[in-house]
Amino acid sequence: MSKGQSGLGKSTLVNTLFKSQVSRKASSWNREEKIPKTVEIKAIGHVIEEGGVKMKLTVIDTPGFGDQINNENCWEPIEKYINEQYEKFLKEEVNIARKKRIPDTRVHCCLYFISPTGHSLRPLDLEFMKHLSKVVNIIPVIAKADTMTLEEKSEFKQRVRKELEVNGIEFYPQKEFDEDLEDKTENDKIRQESMPFAVVGSDKEYQVNGKRVLGRKTPWGIIEVENLSHCEFALLRDFVIRTHLQDLKEVTHNIHYETYRAKRLNDNGGLPPGEGLLGTVLPPVPATPCPTAE
Amino acid sequence: MDKEYVGFAALPNQLHRKSVKKGFDFTLMVAGESGLGKSTLINSLFLTNLYEDRQVPEASARLTQTLTIERRGVEIEEGGIKVKLTLVDTPGFGDSVDCSDCWLPVVRFIEEQFEQYLRDESGLNRKNIQDSRVHCCLYFISPFGRGLRPLDVAFLRAVHEKVNIIPVIGKADALMPKETQALKQKIREQLKEEEINIYQFPDCDSDEDEDFKRQDAEMKESIPFAVVGSCEVVRDGTRPVRGRRYSWGTVEVENPHHCDFLNLRRMLVQTHLQDLKEVTHDLLYEGYRARCLQSLARPGARDRASRSKLSRQSATEIPLPMLPLADTEKLIREKDEELRRMQEMLEKMQAQMQQSQAQGEQSDAL
Fold first, then answer.
1. CA dist., res. B308 & res. B330, Å (int)
2. Among the four residues A27, A106, A203, B254, which has the most C-beta atoms within 10 Å?
3. Is the pLDDT reported for residue A200 higher than 70?
């Protein structure tokens, strides 16, 4: 799921993530010429294949939230959506006749796009992440990072990391879920040095040194998306897809979903919700989750 | 005596000397959400370091921050010409989660300057009127959006009849040339749709040379100006340039192919500074004054108000809008002094009249 104010390149980046992953022939979605303005929660499924491995990826683009003059509680529809997916899964799970493979529409990862102001996080960013880091894995990403020089980038990242820490916002990979020392050292390095990833997205190709690369062409140079000295797109892609994909799913299932489930059971008096059991009717899905049940 | 040559061809020189002696003052307001490179651009424009010790507060501190208005003054001298530049900043604009009405303090500030000028102009001692009116507002639009955002529109609509607006796209090095064009086009369309009146550059005189006309047309075409600011000089190849160095190249601030910085600077400082001041005085201020006086006209004097031009005399009879207490007190004291002096004079005159009357009677009696 990708979130952030409109115009931060969310749709482009998401397209870039897959385009650079998939060979030019096997795309199963239609390539649009212009990027349409996303105005609602849109979930699009892609089936991608690589080396015989098939994966069904669902990308959820969100409305340009944060665009209005008054943005209070604009995270609520998104929170609601995430909880609805947990609810769907829960319902399937407690069914007497369960499907062998429960369709999993839960959100495994949320890419939060931070505007590259160069100063610090915006109050809206803080509010949003505070609320949502409790229900979903958030990976903060600095959008349109081609407006920052190397020094500005590193200073900005430091400030953002500090602000997140001071406000108790745990982004993925969360410290408390590191399984062993190996995990911890690997994740520590990512948490303290690389994140948030400063990315640039593009769906256009240019010729550079005889190769065709994805990039942005300006009068003062060509920014190559997959060049690590230009931006960290490749790091983000590798992190989300090549190394931590499975872990993202596991944390979602074992931690976030379990938290939701426990709370729902508590709400229902310790009884699992469902129609088959004692005719109990499922209480409505809450808009804001209650604090984590211990 | 030479009948054909009187000598008033020397007038422009006299004007020039007087203006240079007087110096120029200019108040520039900078507005837009934080992080768009406003401070850097101002420093680049005027080659100063006005924002050296500025601290940008953290996000959590800005959660409930209300908009503040900050004024910074600097005296710049170049080639013997002195300019007293006042910069008005609006930190906190567009920062909060809820930005409703966050533009009201700005509107109030602009009107207060008009108010002050109106008072000074209507006052008795008009020798040293300080002009603190805002002559121009540079409004920064984000290059990351898809045009004007609702907040931009709300702000612009609130101030466009009160100040000269020059829209500017900040951090324009985020955009590729095609994107810049598309964004400019979109903004121009939106401004038209929302009926927002930005500062209109006056047309060239028909007798200007072609070069100048072309330059002028180019400049008008490039509004809103897509700018990049920098206070650093980088060595690109052989020559040092003001710019921003990236791994993929260096953006040169003063390169017209890279951004519109030169256009903005030329327009703001070299060619249109005086016009901005004149439009502020002749159009925006007069509009404010007329609205103000009309709304304060007493109900019985409706015929007076309906006359096309309100004379200066009637202005002093109609109560002026409320000013902060200190100024009102000062005004009251001054007026009291005035009254006392006039009363004294009246008494003197009355005494004189009585005397002459008495004398007259005496002489009559005699």
1. 33
2. A106
3. yes
